[in-house]
Structures are given as structure tokens and as C-alpha cells.
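seq as requested:
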Amino acid sequence: MKTINKFLAVMALSLMGQTVSAQMVVTNNRANAESQLRKLSIAEMAIKALYVDEVDEQKLVEDAIRGMLEKLDPHSTYTTPKETKAMTEPLNGSFEGIGVQFNMVEDTLIVVQPVINGPSEKVGILAGDRIVMVNDTAIAGVKMSKEEIMRRLRGPKGTIADLRVVRTGIKDLLTFKVKRDKIPVHTVDAAYMLRPGIGYIRVGSFGATTYDEFMERMALLKEQGMKDLVLDLQENGGGYLQAAADMAGEFLNPGDLIVYTEGREVPRREYKAARNGSFRDGRLVVLVDQFTASASEIVTGAIQDHDRGMVVGRRTYGKGLVQRPIELPDGSMIRLTIAHYYTPSGRCIQKPYEKGDKKSYEKDLLNRLNSGELTNADSIHYADSLKFQTLKEHRTVYGGGGIMPDYFIPLDTTRYTKYHRELAAKSIIIQQNLRYVDKNRKALKKQYPDFASFKANYEIPQTFIDAIVKEGEKQKIKPKDAAELEKTMPYLKLQLKALVARDLWDMNEYFSVFNEDSEAVKKALELLQ
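C-alpha cells:
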């Protein structure tokens, strides 16, 4: 009996100890956290007060924040106030400025296109104009950076930019007073009819206005007779989750799961189609590649898992980490990973990574190329544990990072020669294109009054090619031999024709030219036709 009583007493003390121990753990954890914060603060104050050389306290703190984040996942980041503004502006849907697309030829700003109904177009600025002065400050021939020129052209809505412009055929400088306004930033790059009944929409990123842009383009294509759609998400690096979820919902039934997120401290949150989608019945093909990431992978995964459409291309990037923006008092920002993205079938979109090893993570695409994954379907292997089933037709799809397409399109490494890469890297192709269009704009518009006649009949003149080759030689860029030069020509001519179309019309025409030679687009048309 004594033994039993002793055992019960020990058990009672043990249970009491567990309660006390739990309270102590909470207290100790709190005390430890406060201790670590004091430690960090003391280190910063000691360096500032005692270090042998002068230190920049702001940079010291920023380096400490970056140091902490670098030991986590590859997508937790810190940005300065300036970097934060530059990063968020393209996604916010607008900025304030004069409204021109421009490029630099040597030291001169040439207007490629004024924004339709923008402030510059309203006062009469034309494609081909050279802006040489802004508010009595010369910006041409003075080695001013493109960023500095953009800063001078942009400004608060309602302010005036006093511009001096050189126009071909006009002897004197022209003066324009442009009242700055909000300039829309479009994230839907192109939308046109690929073939009778088949529409094409390319989405470049997911921003604040993407859904509205997408719906507007869908309506226009339906008016033109669209029954089926090719949705191009190639090179789409992502953006706002809600914009992607809203767009994906247009292809699904109400209540269909689009994506869910879950993390250590973040409970599962589901995003579902809110209503009957406006395009639930037409056939759908989604184009993806190794640069398709994040929000665009959410759209692709939802469409594939619900057996709503076919996915064509190469395995997507595999960026499935949810970042929460934490705004700091000075306008800087921490984007901290708090959860993972999962497709409706339960696939984790995020590819594997080692904490703190950003270099290996950044080499992933190169490793895919070297392993043959981007060029040969037979080089792709998945473990049985990574197999998942689609929700309606129960087809096998694969997890393990990224979205594997239903139809593989190999990367054509033969069309990009070393000679072409070097010409592009030195901006010779872009610069010579601007010169060519600037010189021949009126003649081209007269000869090809509409895009249909241009697309059917225009060919790149040999003089245009000769100018590129000559400029390359000036900068010590030459083909290895005649064979490399010949091999470079087909893709170079296609690229130049697309660029000329863009500068004479817009991005719809650019992609209309390029897509005629796209293997992914050809496969989409084959599936739909």
C-alpha cells in the first residue's frame, strides 16, 4: 500500500510539474526573445559608438535585416524605399508622367509610341519625335542615364513638363507643354484572333488592373467570334494572388477550389471561384515555360487540376511561397514567407530548396538545361510519391515543384546562336531597329497601310541586315564563320519584323508576327483545330 501511495504522489507531482513547466517554457521563450532583441540592439550600438571607422547606421541596420533573411528561403527579401517603389509601381496599375513609350539611340530619346489618349498624344507628340530638353534642361547629348531622364519626365499629376522636340522634316525645335497625368501600366500584353474562332491573350504579369484588362480583352475577342482561347503565360513571373484567382475563376464553376495556402502559423485559407465563369465552355490551352512562376502557376494548376484545359510548354518555375509584405516606417519593406501555395489536387507548387543556399536555388534553371529537362521529355523523371490525380478525369499529374505540362515543347537551343546573343546583349538589334523605323516610318506606313498587308508581304531588306552586321563589327562582334551567320538569319529576321510591327502599330502586332513561328502556339492550334 505504501508503494502505491508513493507512486500516486510521484505522479501527482509529475503532472503538477508539467503545468508549471509549460508556464515556464512560455516565460522562458518570451525572456529569450527579449534577450535576443537586446543582444542585436547592443551589437548595433557598440559598432556605431566604438568601431574604428565611421559607419553608416542605416546601411548597418539594412545589412543586418538582409543577413537574417538570407538564412531563410530564397524569396524572403528586404527592399529599400526606392527599391520598394520601383517594385510595386508596375503592379499598382499606373504611374504619373507624360505618357510615352521611348528608347534611347546613342544619347537621344526617341518616342516609340505615345500612349493612346495620354497627355503627350493629346498635345500632338508623335512616334519618331526626339525629346531633347525637359524644363530647360538638355537631356540629349549629355550622357544622362535612362533612369534620370525618366525621373525628369515623370512627376505629380497636374504638373507641366515643358518639352523641346526635334521632328524629322521640321527645321526648328518644337515646344510642347504636357500636363502630366496618371498613365496606365498594362499587364495584358496582347489580345487578338489567332485564327477564325480562336483567340489569343498574353498576360505578362498579375497586377491591380489585370483582371479588368483581361475581361475587357475577352469581351472584344468574343465580339470578333472567339469560341476557343489560347492563354499565354510564358515568362509571366506572377504578381498579385487575388488577380490570378479572379482570372482563374472565369474558367471554372462557382465553388471550385483555385488554390489554398497553409503555413506554420498561418491556417489553411482557400480561394474559390466566386461565380459562374464567363468562359466555362470554350476549349482552352494554356502556354507555359520555365519562367512561368507564382501567380501564373496558380492559374495553370487550377485549370489543369479541374481538367478545364490543356497545358502546353515546359515545367514551370516552381515559386509557391506566400510572402507577406511588412512595411517599415521609412518606406522600406520586408517580404516574409509565411505559407506555401497548393493546387486544388494538393500539389505544392514550390520547388525544393535548402535554407540559406540561394546560389544553388538560382542555378536550378541552368541545372534543368544541363540535365536535358528543357530539351528532351525523356530526361524528365518523377518518383511515384509525386503522382497526383486531377479532380474530374483522374489523370495523373505531378508534384515536386512547378506545373508539368500535358504536352511538352522542347526548348529550341539551335535557333539562338552565340553571334545573335552577343548582338542582343550589346543592344545592337534594338538600336538598329529604332534607326531603321525612324528613317523609314512614313514610307513603310504608305506601302503597308494596314497590318494585314505588312504581315503578308513585308520582308526585312538586306540593307537592314548589313547595318546590324556592320555595327557588330565596329564593336568586335563577328560570326564564327559563314555557317553561323546563315544560322542566325531566320530568327534575326523574324525578330526584326516583329519589332518593326510593334513600332508601327503595337504589341498585338508584335506577337502576331512572332507567334506564327512559335512551336507552343503551333501545338495549341493543332490541339484546337
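The radius of gyration is 28 Å.
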